[in-house]
Design goal:
Blueprint: H1 3-14, H2 27-30, E1 73-75, H3 82-88, H4 93-99, E2 114-116, E3 132-144, E4 147-160, E5 166-176, H5 193-200, H6 209-212, H7 221-224, H8 235-246, H9 251-261, H10 279-285, H11 290-302, E6 308-309, E7 312-313, H12 314-323, E8 326-327
Antiparallel strand pairs: 1-2, 3-4, 3-8, 4-5, 6-7
């Protein structure tokens, strides 16, 4: 494999899987579903749920610890990420987030920041039994015109219980296009990425799809003023839906669900949008029970993008996280 790929993967491994650095994405190729009929929602994305991006003013996200008992809060140090803090104190990410409503984006925490980690028993119910943390990272190229094109690095950070069920899950994708990496397809090109960007005096261009948030614009809301995909949900919103849906399942159960209920492109059968289903799709779901069909209507109302295609490999990253899991020691 080329030296440039080695640099990319070593760089990606050096960062937290929850906050991988990335780039501006080719949204035309990054969108994983065909457009539906255009509707006319509000022309701007809801500010309350939009994740912070590089253009967002850094938020203080502080708490007054003067009246808190010792041990009831944690001070962030360099290298910390939110899910690690949650695991350290026996909580899921959701539980820790509920304790800290002042943190608007859990992927953006800063050294010196105070995070509440202890409350009344009625507020926090820590996960019981032994927990296991798994980190999965799967790189793959998209092939276009016979050449390696975009490099996609799919990551999964997963907390499992003793029974192997998913307690907490976060997926993300780092997609790097040739234009974002000088000399991407040229084996004789200058290999030093840092030197290239330093000489040009530009900032590191890579952001994960989660970090891009609404700027990824899979819905075309930003570029066209109206969401034109099936769910009208952005990439990270659809992924949030999948993550919540798969909680409580084992990796084997997730894979079995994927194999049964997703089409050849890795997308769940679009029962919520029957006009978007092919004849092959309709034949595949004909034997499903009413309960299965209702489940797929519910799922595809929340998410229709692929769980495994040339843009991302969520299933294999989940399997790798399970294979590489380690016990969490409190």
């Amino acid at each position: 494999m080329k030296k440039t790929l080695g640099i990319i993967l070593s760089t990606a491994l050096a960062f937290s899987v929850l906050a991988l650095p990335i780039f501006a994405v080719d949204t035309t190729s990054g969108a994983s579903e065909a457009p539906a009929a255009t509707t006319t929602p509000a022309a701007s994305a809801p500010a309350a749920t939009a994740p912070a991006t590089k253009t967002t003013t850094t938020q203080a996200a502080t708490v007054d610890t003067s009246n808190l008992a010792p041990g009831s809060y944690y001070t962030v140090v360099s290298g910390d990420v939110f899910w690690k803090i949650a695991a350290k104190y026996g909580m899921t990410v959701d539980q820790l987030a509920k304790l800290n409503p002042q943190i608007k984006n859990i992927n953006l925490i800063y050294p010196g920041q105070k995070i509440i980690v202890k409350a009344d028993a009625s507020t926090v119910t820590a996960a019981s039994g032994k927990l296991y943390l798994g980190i999965g990272m799967v790189p793959n190229y998209r092939i276009r015109n016979g050449n390696n094109d975009n490099l996609n690095i799919t990551t999964a950070s997963v907390l499992f219980d003793e029974a192997g069920k998913i307690v907490d899950l976060e997926w993300d994708v780092l997609e790097i296009t040739p234009t974002e990496f000088p000399g991407w397809l040229d084996p004789n090109a200058e290999d030093s990425v840092k030197a290239v960007y330093s000489a040009a005096q530009v900032s590191w261009p890579w952001e994960t799809k989660r970090e891009l948030g609404y700027d990824y614009d899979m819905t075309h809301l930003k570029s066209k003023g109206a969401a034109d995909n099936n769910t009208k949900k952005e990439w990270f919103e659809q992924l949030d839906f999948y993550e919540k849906f798969f909680k409580g399942k084992t990796v084997a159960e997730v894979e079995a669900w994927f194999n049964k209920y997703c089409d050849a492109n890795g997308r769940p059968y679009k029962l919520a949008y029957p006009d978007k289903m092919t004849d092959a799709d309709k034949a595949a779901v004909a034997s499903f029970t009413d309960a299965e069909k209702k489940m797929l209507v519910d799922v595809t109302t929340g998410a229709t993008m692929s769980l495994k295609d040339p843009h991302s490999n969520f299933i294999d990253s989940l399997k790798k996280a399970w294979a590489d899991r380690k016990p969490v020691n409190f």
